[in-house]
Amino acid sequence: MSASHFFRRAGQRKPVKSFPTAVALLIASSSAVAAGDMSQMDGMPGMKGMGNMDMSDKGNNSSQSRSGSTSKTGGAPGAKGTSGMDGGDQMKSPGDQPHPKSAAPTDGNQSKSSSDASIRVDNSKSPKAGPLNGPNHIIGVDEPRIPMANPNEGIPMQGMDMSDNGIYHQILINQLEYVKAVGGQGWSWDGEAWIGGDINRLWLKSSGERLYGKTDDARVEALVSHAYSTYWNAQLGVRHDFGNGPTRDWAAIGVEGLAPYFFNVQATGYIGTSGRTALQLKTSYDILLSQKLFLTPEAEMNAYGKSDPEREIGSGISDIKLGLRVRYEIRREIAPYIGFVWGRRFGRTADFSRRDGEPVTDTELVVGLRLWY
Length: 373
Description:
The protein has 6 helices and 13 strands. By secondary structure, it is an alpha+beta fold. The protein is elongated and about 130 Å long.
């Protein structure tokens, strides 16, 4: 029965009023149409016997039909090998082209493959666990291991040495300036030099001022420093005072480093003869205005444990200085600057200045040069 004949017969039936009945009728109609189409395939070339396939298996045979459809098809006449898509030429559509099959290797290819096999790397001697073939395989190495004198230092290699223990040096004249004050003029200096490595260094420092016809606060220090952290050094050494009055010698101990927010900090305590003690605190900060222009505020305080009238120094806080300098780096090693310094003496130190007719407060204009090598 053809599909057109079936639908003409189905159109003469009465309308179905129940929905389940309509669904069942639709399923039955689909099965009938499929069975009718498969029966018509018997007349097609190469498809003889396909219409004999049982499309209406019932009960337990349905699962066997699904699982065994390949075997049934393989046994049908003209459809041999359809399970592997190896059917006859009759099943190919006009536009289909078979995939080319690789040709059998010739004698030359066989000899080439045999030669390649002879030069394969023996991966059975792989030094570590890993794949023995493929792109990520580990190639065995028969070279002897290089002995290490000290495993903590590794294997020395020429051109790869680290200069952690090198000896360096620097000479820095931080301030070499002309001073113009209200009551006179003079000059002052502040510099340092060091030699050593990254951890231990030997320092030589000197600072002083000559104003109102005499040299005040002139000193030289020799210190040994040790870096106990990334930004801080502990310093130990001696200090020698000269200039106005008799000389004084001190033992020095202190710290120097870079505080948070990049403040340069120095704090040094001194112990001298006859029970004398002293403390010096210094800090500075470089503000980068441009690649060559810097603004540097500075502060310094000196305090003493007891008075020293011969050097016109009183006990307690002796003096405080605040400075502001602007420098321009022609080169990193050469930088002229101009600045302003305010200073004040306190306590008995101020009394000694009044006795000599000197001002207690100093307001100074400074022009100088910063050098380092």
